[in-house]
Amino acid sequence: MGNDSFHLPGGDLLSDPQMKISGMRQVLKAMEENPSEVTGRICESLAWDADFLSDPDRKLFLLPALAAVRPMSGPAEAVFRNANGEGYFNFNGPLLVANASPRALALFEDMVADASVRPEDRVDMLHHAVLAHRTEGPIVAACLRLLARGLEPGVETGVAETLYDYQEKRWFGPARGAPVPPTWNQAGTAVLQSLLEAAKGLRGPGRFSDELQDAIEGATLEIREILAARAR
Hints:
This protein is mainly alpha-helical. It is 62% helix and 0% strand. It has eleven helices and no strands. It is globular, with a radius of gyration of 20 Å. The model is unreliable at 1-7 (pLDDT under 50).
């Protein structure tokens, strides 16, 4: 299958609304693994098709296929915004961060700042979405913009701890497959420098707990050591 075209097995998907969920999963997984402008347009169309949506579980396979297309288009962003209101908020967060294109991250930032969603739900989404990507430049930049946005204290804490701390049991409990942060030495020098500079503004009494302040300090010490080693 080439990235410049995509053919649905057995004819037009929309002509067979009774396709079994296993077959649908296979088709959309193939789209996810071979993203292109064409697969993006197919997914955008399916996202509003009544026959396709007659089984709501199909959206669980559609959204990852659509999120695999980079950069995210305006119509794709609209699909994700609509899905947030249908109960896919926590599902969408990791997909948008993994996409990492400007529209996807702008929507992610809006989701974190959305006061209509409970703060604890937004923080949980942050942990699941960002942790595995917190050494990537666009993701770090998005989180730093969020820290400058004037979020509620609990959500602001969630952003800061996701960037600088890691509490596996507290954040994820006994769940298997919980995200794990990459080591700091996997980050580019410019990213580490931005994290180091941002940490200066996060210190001070009252803004965060002593525990988080200690975690930020520990992270910055490690980052300084890495930067010093690279400068030798």
